[in-house]
Amino acid sequence: MSSPTYWDNEAYVSAHLVNEIFERLMPKREPHYIWQPEYKVPNMGNKKVDFYIEDRLRNIEFFIEVKSAKTKIDGAARFQLGEYLRNAKMRYGLLIDPFSIEIYEFLNGQITLKTTYSITDPTDVESAVLFLDHFLESTKMRTIAINASKGGVGKTTLTVNIAYELARMGNRVLVVDLDDQANASLTLGVNKAEEFERAKTAEQYKKLLDSFKGRKEVIGFMKSAATETDHAIFREHIYPAMGGFNCGELEKGKIDVLPSSYLTKPAEITESPSAYRLLDKGLRCLSGDYDYVIVDTSPNLNRITWNGLYATQYVVVPSQMEYLSVFGIKNLLQNLGDVQEMNNNLRGKPLGIIPTMIENTTLHQTIRKFLEEWIPDVPLLQEIKGSTHIGNASHLRKPMSVHAEKGNNPNAQRAAQQFIDLTVQIVNRIDLLERN
Ligand SMILES: Nc1ncnc2c1ncn2[C@@H]1O[C@H](COP(=O)(O)OP(=O)(O)OP(=O)(O)O)[C@@H](O)[C@H]1O
Ligand SMILES: [Mg+2]
């Protein structure tokens, strides 16, 4: 065993403790992890923090400041780390010495201690690795886009119902609406759907439309990401879901919405090398806030839709079982292949195809079989049958599960069960992919 006096040296602690721990958690040789020792803290002149670390698998970045057995984590070290986090607008920071690890969070202008860990023997890093892995997992946000190159296949209906079922399971869910038709934002109660329905004159209608001009929404969120990293700025664009989608009373889950409107135009995003990564950058500043981010996309593959694909780890593809829709899937999978290639396979993985609006006809069955043979590596997930109950629920802006609670109609309950089964299947499939 090494002589205890070695631990009096910060460089030794960095090389033997911090390095050992993080080599196991996030090996430097793997492209998903970025380590920058002696990192110049933004807005602090020449001040350097011991490490800047980015984990692109879990969407988290943080600073580490190292202390020795002699210098130890003390009030001055905590103050200094706090200043680094504040000035760099960095959310998480770690203090590590041979005796303990402290994890701090900078949020809403406050620095708080999230959790601590006592190191019993600095040469035995295994339990410290487990502790940090647990913390990092707790900040992890799973991101899923619902995308199809065809309109009216049930993308928005899936988005809102999957979001609801995830929230009911206790997850914190963010729905991102990237479609200028804003159907998800209307359904989730943040786009004045009721006021629009009540508007009687063209003037009232125009006034309602104008009210979106000053509102912060998804375009502003993306534009902010070009220059900002401050969590508070991104949160200003997000609103709690309302109406049938307010999960407040239900267990501990919740749904928030990053809405769109008719102002969500691709031309708002100016072409630049980073124009496709704005949503990704912005969402990364929210890691720790949500368990799942569900992105509803428009059927047009424009710059905003590309942002959705670049920002999400997984993509589910709803499709009607018709020959033309099925051919569109091949194109989409090719595009997703490009996204994966550009992002070290961290974005744009097709999770599965969801057969939607299924009627029990022989044609549907034939196409299903054809798809299974033609695209063997992307599984077909739980199908959603064509149902007037589903149409009615979305017309009433309610999750299918809530709509089915009333009336005791077995067909409505079966329709709701499909969304529940599909959501469980999606979660299980991601669990499986993450384990491998
Ligand atoms: N399984 C279903 N059975 C019957 N009707 C459905 C079903 N799924 C969705 N619908 C209805 O079909 C219409 C289109 O669905 P939705 O808006 O979800 O499709 P979309 O793919 O998001 O469309 P767009 O491409 O225009 O955004 C809606 O009126 C919706 O209520
Ligand atoms: Mg839609």
Looking at this protein, list some descriptive labels.
single chain, 436 residues, alpha/beta, Rossmann fold, 2 domains, eight-stranded mixed β-sheet, six-stranded mixed β-sheet, 14 strands, binds adenosine-5'-triphosphate
What can you see in these coordinates?
This protein is an alpha/beta fold. It is built from 16 helices and 14 strands. The strands form two sheets. An eight-stranded mixed sheet has the order 9-10-8-11-7-12-13-14, sandwiched between helices. The longest helix is centred in the last third of the chain and has 26 residues, at 410-435. The radius of gyration is 24 Å and the shape is globular. The mean pLDDT is 93.
Derived from helix and strand composition plus strand pairing, the structural class reads: alpha/beta
Q: State the share of residues found in helices, binned by percent.
A: 40-55%
Helix/strand order: HEEEHEEEHEHEHHHHHEEHEHEHEHEHHH
What is the highest CATH level, the class of the largest domain? Alpha Beta
Low-confidence stretches: none
In total, how many beta strands?
14
